[in-house]
Amino acid sequence: MGSGQFSFLFFLCFCQLSFSSSIPHLCRKDQSYALLEFKRTLIVDPSLVTSSSYSYTSSWNMSRDCCSWDGVVCNEMTGHVIELDLSCSGLVGKIDSNSSLFQLSHLQKLDLSSNNFSNSNISPEFGRFSSLTYLDLSDSYFSGQIPSEISHLSKLQSLYFSGEMLKFGPHDFEMLLQNLTQLSELHLTSINISSTIPPNFSSHLTTLRLGNTGLHGLIPESIFHLPNLETLVLQNNDQLSGYFPKTKWNSSASLIELDLSGVNFSCNLPESLGYLTSLHSLSLKNCSLRGPIPQSLSNLTHILDLDLSDNSLNGTIPSGMFSLPSLSRLVLSNNHFSGQFEDFNSNSLIWIDLSNNQLQGHLPKSIQNHVNLTGLILSSNNFSGRVDVSFFADLKQLCYLDLSYNRISLTNENKHKVTLPGSLMSLQLAACEVKELEFLRSEMLLWHLDLSNNKIEGRIPDWAWSNWMYSLKRLNLSHNMLASVDSIPLQSANAIDLRSNFLQGSLPIPPISTRFFLISHNNLSGEIPSSICNLTSLVMLDLAGNNLKGAIPQCLGNISALQVLDMHYNSLSGTLPTTYRIGSALKSFNFHGNKLEGVIPQSLIYCKQLEVLDLGDNHLNDTFPVWLGTLPKLKVLSLRSNKLHGPIRTLMTENMFPQLRILDLSSNAFTKSLPTSLFQHLKAMRTVDQTMNAPTDEGDQYYQDSVALVTKGLELEVERILFLYTTVDLSNNKFEGHIPSIMGDLIALRVLNISHNGLQGHIPPSLGSLSLVESLDLSFNQLSGEIPEQLASITSLAVLNLSHNHLEGCIPNGPQFTTFENNSYEGNDGLRGYPFPQGCGSSRMPETENITHMLDEVSKSTFLSEFWNGILMGYGSGLIIGFSIAYFMLSSRNSNWLSRIAEELEYRIVMRRQKKKQGHHRR
Ligand SMILES: *[C@@H]1O[C@H](CO)[C@@H](O)[C@H](O)[C@H]1NC(C)=O
Ligand SMILES: *[C@@H]1O[C@H](CO)[C@@H](O)[C@H](O)[C@H]1NC(C)=O
Ligand SMILES: *[C@@H]1O[C@H](CO)[C@@H](O)[C@H](O)[C@H]1NC(C)=O
Ligand SMILES: *[C@@H]1O[C@H](CO)[C@@H](O)[C@H](O)[C@H]1NC(C)=O
Ligand SMILES: *[C@@H]1O[C@H](CO)[C@@H](O)[C@H](O)[C@H]1NC(C)=O
Ligand SMILES: *[C@@H]1O[C@H](CO)[C@@H](O)[C@H](O)[C@H]1NC(C)=O
Ligand SMILES: *[C@@H]1O[C@H](CO)[C@@H](O)[C@H](O)[C@H]1NC(C)=O
């Protein structure tokens, strides 16, 4: 419709109205024109209009006075439109600077929220609504910079913007707060503000929602003292820090909602929180808080929601917390609380999450009184005792139950009669001594079931499969004693974990929807059917540690989502899949310990995301795949124990193997000289990453979460643990010539093994620059000359093997060298000095006390001794110890890394170790 036609219609209508209407006429011609014109520039998308709302503009037509149109309010005296509410109207389109909207210059209230103006910037013309007190443009997909003209709206009391596409220009946020002196409600959730918070605010402020806005710096304490403040939300601004007021916050104790989650406070919770007696909701998740919960928190008698999770709070939970009369949601997870879980005085709780603390004792019976409880999450504490299934019988609303990793045994005294409530959707009972599944007979709604680390035997009963066929998305039955799974008849499973059972028979194929399928460490046999390639959504496929035979289905290379393909330790034969294509998502490719033949497929070069490539212990017959050097993220390359041969040639390109930290080419038939040109690259080995500490017992910072594998907590929690233990192992080949002195540049190396080759000449003094090296093995070569003094300065050296060469002269003197014994040097031509009886000038056997002292330093100085302990625990071996330096794929929750290593040791580099420990004990 052209605008000429429009005006004509309008004119007709206007005349009609002015003669026929008995009610006083309000609508001004210019205003209704502007409204209709505005309507004309937009379309209505019915799918955006929720069933509860409808599009206001649909009622706009000339047959009625525009002041009676839906969403429109006029000034009764002047007929000017003063309020326009078009929220949730399904409007789609663009509002540019010449929009007729801006002709409604008397607007006091404008609400355009929850529409779709995704092509629009916020026009500076909005700044001309000088009477505006209320402006809501939230959830409407506006984008770009918020015009500074908004600060002209000096009467504004309520302002709502939201969305990641919007941002403030420099200083605009500060000016806004300075100029809008009447402001009482300010909602800017998820806008990119990226500035500090200025200290001055309108004293009228009641609501301040600035979550997820990139604010940084210190929160001005004046915010906490705003006299009328009811809602303060600054959550999710991790660059922001602050201090709590030590005294009363504001005189009226007006705060109702306080959410500072993610803001860095790094302090104890202050007693002064007890003044906030009106609080309904307090959220201080992940605020780096420590120390105990102050007693004063029991003053917060109106509190409904309390979230103090993800901090370092400790001590016991004060008993006052268990008597808060209205508390419905208590979240204290991921802290260090100890002591008991007391009886609650109220019955009002709906959600309890105390997971990941050190709480102990029995579950209090009073939990049963919270009949509206929907979530009870107590995992990873020290709770103990037997808990019978009947304990939960009255909790008819229970959806989410997690008792995993305590010392709880779940019993079922009244088998066949009592089951868990049928309302459960997520049930996690890992390590709860579960033996059978009868107590799950009522469960028809489960979408997440974790019964890992239990004692379930035999097979999964048919009733279970049929109960869960349509609902179950995540199933974890790993670490049980299941004997067979013939099929997995689930319709929409996403993650299935059956690792470490006693499963026999052929590989069951999960439903097509499966993204994570883990069935390693079982007894599966037969071939891998090519129908596995029908699982086109697969992200992770772990079939390691079975007896699978035959060829690898070539079509596996076609699954474009696949990130982790792990089939190590099987008996697979034939060749590797060659069908990789550009865009492959593959990150980890592990076929270690099979019987694969042929060459390393060149199509792997398309897997630009590849971080781990382990083809060790196979029968591959190829030359060195130098083209792998172009993979930008490759961290681990193991080709050990194959039939690889020929000289190691390198490409002329820049920056080969930039991220490589583990290179294992041992036990092949490589020839000619050590690859000097390769050592010129290897950037990651030439720089010491200070942030990369050796693993501690805590281990967490050392675990690399494979972020891509875990989305929003609903996916299987697969953590990838990559032991970035920088290593070069070229042993057991046919290398000859000299050790290039450039090897001394690989200063990040912790393990260097070039033993069992035909190397000649002197040991280059440059190896003394390897200041982090803990194991150096040059044995079984033809090396001659003296041991360079420089090696004696390597204080981290715990293992040295120079045996079976032609070395002669004095063994240098150094703190570490006093710990090495004969077998480090035996089979040489003429070495003298400690530990040999033939003296060597000034060098002498050091004092016993000093040795002991130094040994203690050794054990302290590196993590290696601790590591050995772990390995010893697992293998109880003596001289030659399997040293795992590589990586582990495992789903680990809360278990200490040493026992995990012992348990899941998958890849090891065997090397000779000094009898350091034994020597230590002998003294
Ligand atoms: C903010 O207020 C000051 C002083 O009232 C005024 O000079 C300035 O123009 C205002 N800025 C905006 C963008 O409104
Ligand atoms: C807690 O409440 C009591 C009485 O209601 C009051 O005397 C006390 O000052 C409050 N404590 C704090 C820290 O607010
Ligand atoms: C709580 O942690 C602090 C260190 O942050 C420590 O000094 C204190 O002893 C701990 N208290 C308890 C009860 O564990
Ligand atoms: C449980 O919820 C119902 C319905 O909302 C309510 O009437 C009842 O009081 C609640 N029970 C308790 C113990 O809070
Ligand atoms: C794989 O999928 C195709 C088509 O989706 C189907 O025809 C075929 O039967 C499937 N193969 C197996 C073994 O399930
Ligand atoms: C490797 O393959 C070549 C040619 O295909 C063959 O001549 C050679 O014997 C093989 N080497 C080994 C060790 O099997
Ligand atoms: C260690 O040796 C030094 C001389 O090398 C000597 O001064 C010292 O007393 C010895 N003993 C101890 C326990 O340090």
TrEMBL record:
SMART domains listed in its UniProt record: LRR_TYP
Domain Leucine-rich repeat-containing N-terminal plant-type: 30-75
Keyword Acyltransferase: no
Top-rank taxon: Eukaryota
Signal peptide bounds: 1-20
Topological category with respect to the lipid bilayer: Single-pass type I membrane protein
Segments traversing the membrane: 867-890
Keyword Isomerase attributed: no
Protein localization: Cell membrane
Similarity remark: Belongs to the RLP family.
PANTHER family, sorted: DISEASE RESISTANCE LIKE PROTEIN, LEUCINE-RICH REPEAT RECEPTOR PROTEIN KINASE EMS1-LIKE-RELATED
Protein name: Leucine-rich repeat-containing N-terminal plant-type domain-containing protein
Organism: Solanum tuberosum (Potato)
